[in-house]
Write a structure and sequence with these properties.
homotetramer, mainly alpha, Four Helix Bundle (Hemerythrin (Met), subunit A)
């Protein structure tokens, strides 16, 4: 068991897996480049299957080696799901899933420490943002219901039902083509600009604050550490200086007391 | 009275109200999803009315319990208005107001402390921004008057009157489709690019500074508090150290004086 | 002279001028609202002329009171130009200038201190940005020449001459409709995406750095002052403590010396 | 050799070159302004050739003066390539390269120190961003492969092959016209909104973090230096104070010891 772990974590094995993932990503990329796909399609397909076998073997070995603790690392769950997708039969409604095989390339992130750190940093910003994201979703939901109620009849393409409205409102939040949508509705409801103005201002302001949260968080972490290290150094130095001075003064006092004692019992 | 307050603020009652608000939000959402709305429309409508009754009762009880101090909390006024909207007759020009019933869902914000804090933080940034927002509105007004004077004849759709101009200028400020509008006018007035360039640069620069204000404000609050706590700790420690050293030295002096006195009056 | 200055700077006179500027802004706004403009157009025009007379008188008095030092304040030059525009004959190529009469409303900025401070803060960020703005203009010029050389034949509407190219590139920098322009050209020159990619990345990256410069500048000013005040307080306190300790120790030494002298010359 | 270096680095020669670069940039600009280009085209062409000769001579002299160390400064390599482009024959597939002659104007950046510093600051931010840029490219590649697999059949114009998909995804990342592309596909694949939503959120979030990295980096450099200078001043002052106090106390102790010694050997 321990030998298997050592084998899997050996840098040669790790680098081989990284290389195979890159090769696999290139193969899957070639499949989307018609001139090559049409000529070498079958070879690419065989290679992809061969690589899949290797990945399945590697994943199985890791499962054997780490057992249930394997599932403690979210990156392992990601690997597990991505490999699992490739093993599903490509029939019926699942053909779309075949397109997700390329997600394997994202395993590179979990295998290269510097990339892993960047993604961890990106994701670490999210929990602190939970409240504001919930608020944003609530505002989106409320706006979608209002927009559907008000404009479903006028503009069924954009606001026909709540899902269409939610999509359109997301589009408006990205400020893409919002004015044309608003103008079409304002032909029938001249005061519709009020809804769009309020929605754009409130949603972009909330998103801005979401961004600020991420920025302040990042600065607190990156700048803060440096400043904190410096500060605790300052405190330590000041403490040491204070200690030395106090010690000196105390010895002075001891010496004075000694003199006094000597005086009272003269030689 | 006190019993009523205790009842209303009891966590069970609060959680029940939160649950009913969520249920109500879902019901109002279903009404905008045609397959469900067409089949269960009447049931949804009855449920909505039943919930409205509960909310009216809850609001009345709060009014009785807190009397005029009820209106001191802006969230209460918000509740009052939102419930009031639902009680208006849905006839004539007021049908649009029925769409605002879903605003009740925003009461969730006032009932969940973490959400309340986020919204309070968002709104707290606004007062400091009053000057720059006034400036932005003034620039918008001036630009709208100029644009109407210059382009009302050429492009009545976009700049026909001051309201249309204001809307179009807001659109241009979001950089959405501004180039097409500008090009249409530049066919007739080749120097119109000057107006659009100046407007885009000045309005986006002002908005950028509005954003910076919000960012700096947020950092001052979030980073500042931490730094301030640390700083007052530093000051306190330094004061304490200074006090101790001074005390020691004073005792030293007292001892010296004692020696001197002893010397002058030898044993 | 001094009396005239005191009269002009009297808060009553200032507030009257502010009120007249607002009234004038509203009048000029009404002129762009067809229902009112068509009915009361002549009255509005008379009122505007009357107000212009008052502003001319006020400006002349200020010129008399301050003489050449009047032109030292850039806001005064702004007033002078804006009033001057209104006095030009509205004929020939100058009709467009009549639309600029509303610029008078911007005098509000110079008359309300809090607004003046905001605008001063906005403008204060510009000098530090001179280098990066020059760089941006240089990049724009170079890109405009290249784009005209490469695409004038293919897309004369967007890149026909250097001015059209500069306008189109500014449009692309705002990311508005850039993809359609690029795709039209890529039909004829498949590698044109390279130019657009490089241009978008370099120009947005430069603008981003322009923004960062403004942000860092603003933070340095707003946060910096507070921190600096605190810091100089800290330094002063530390200096005072050090001085007191040193004084105490020196007195101690003086006392010791006194003892020694006394000993060597016993009573 | 040393004389040649001194000649090339003489401020008169440097300013002459700067002037010639500006003249050359203006000439190349005039070539893209039809009214002038058609009338004075041949003169402009002759002038451009004359200036090219001067630049080639200057570059050769610099090559002679600095030899291989010439290529150590990346700005020199830039000059070398840009001048080299102009010397290539303008035939066949290379006509496009003639449009790049204007890149010479960018030599201004390398000749004006303040501009050079700005560009160096811009580029200095890049190495620290390597990980996140790699991540962004990986995400782009994965998304392009998925989009091609899923939508090549439905929307060959936008997602026909991996290069078209990459271009379209870059367009979507700039939020330009993304909704129309998404809606066209959603007609055939109703769940396509999921792909676009995930792609937009993840790519804009990554770009946001790229920006934050640049901002934090810039602040660390610009604000950090100031703070660090101040801090090391504080530390130095505190060290000096501590040293003085310690010295005083030690002298006190020496004096006490002297007293003690005197006492034990009385006069």
């Amino acid at each position: 068991m321990r030998a298997l772990k050592r084998f899997l974590e050996h840098s040669l094995v790790q680098n081989l897996i990284i290389a195979l993932i890159i090769v696999n990503a290139i193969i899957l990329g070639f499949e989307t480049w018609p001139p090559i796909a049409s000529q070498y399609g079958s070879i690419l397909s065989v290679l992809d299957r061969a690589l899949l076998v290797i990945f399945v073997v590697e994943l199985s070995l890791r499962l054997v080696a780490y057992r249930l603790s394997f599932f403690r690392d979210p990156w392992n769950i990601f690997d597990f799901v991505v490999i699992g997708i490739a093993l599903l039969p490509a029939t019926g409604g699942l053909t779309a899933l075949r397109a997700l095989r390329i997600l394997r390339a994202l395993r590179l992130v979990s295998m290269i420490p510097s990339m892993k750190r960047v993604v961890a940093a990106l994701l670490s910003a999210l929990p602190g943002m939970a409240s504001i994201i919930t608020l944003l979703l609530l505002v989106q939901y409320v706006a979608a219901v209002i927009a559907t109620k008000l404009y479903a009849g006028i503009s069924p393409e954009f606001f026909g039902d709540i899902l269409k409205s939610a999509f359109t409102l997301f589009q408006i939040m990205t400020l893409e083509g919002w004015a044309d949508i608003a103008r079409d509705i304002m032909v029938h409801q001249p005061y519709a600009w009020l809804f769009f103005l309020v929605y754009i201002l409130s949603s972009t302001f909330t998103v801005l604050n979401l961004f600020i949260g991420v920025v302040v968080n990042a600065m607190q972490e990156q700048l803060g550490e440096e400043v904190k290290a410096e500060h605790s150094e300052d405190v330590a130095r000041e403490q040491a200086h204070f200690g030395l001075l106090l010690e000196e003064i105390k010895q002075l006092r001891a010496e004075l007391s000694a003199i006094r004692v000597e005086r009272q019992s003269p030689p």
